[in-house]
Amino acid sequence: MTDYNAALVLKNNFQEVYFNRGNLRMKQDKFTDAIADYTKVLELNPNYVKAISNRGDAYFEMGNYSKAIVDFTKAIEFDSKNAKLYYNRGNARFSKEEYKAALVDYNLAIELNTKYIEAYYNRAVVKSLIGDNNGAIDDYNEIVKVFPEDVDGYVGRGISKHRLDDFEGAIMDYTYAIAISGANSEAYYNRGLSKLLLNQKENACTDFKKSLELQHDSAAEALKKYCR
Length: 228
Description:
78% of the residues lie in helices and 0% in strands.
């Protein structure tokens, strides 16, 4: 940090110094200071795309999703083929519960990068939230095809199958997630719910107990409600 400050004393319009100091401040979680540095860069060079997108990242980290969206949108105007910019804007829109707009951005990110697994995952979550569980399953399928030991992929797909009343399919996914992770409270808890709906009460209660051991927030309530 001292070297960056010294450089600015010598040449206070040196945009790269402001940019690099902003990056360092981001790593230090000094997001307000980073925004100030990126803003200075943009005063010197309004077309500095990386500074625009990095400032968007800083706004996002601060929870200012509206300003993050403004910056990501501006960056996209300069770099419309950058999948990460659409992904980041989608995340900001997701955080504002603008799910349909987030879905559009995740779609665009995946069109530009068909192997963008993070975008598939977030798109699956959005689809599930808006009731498109079949679409969510399609995305989870892509995730576990590329990463066959992705626990969250199996748990997410299990949740979507459960919502479609495919309880046996959900149980298979939760069981696979448990086999991979060894201990996953959400997988045990959700498997218990699916087993309940297949009239497998004893097995369901065993899963709730295991989930409680793993400190799942809802396990105690499930045991009290279903397993007396």
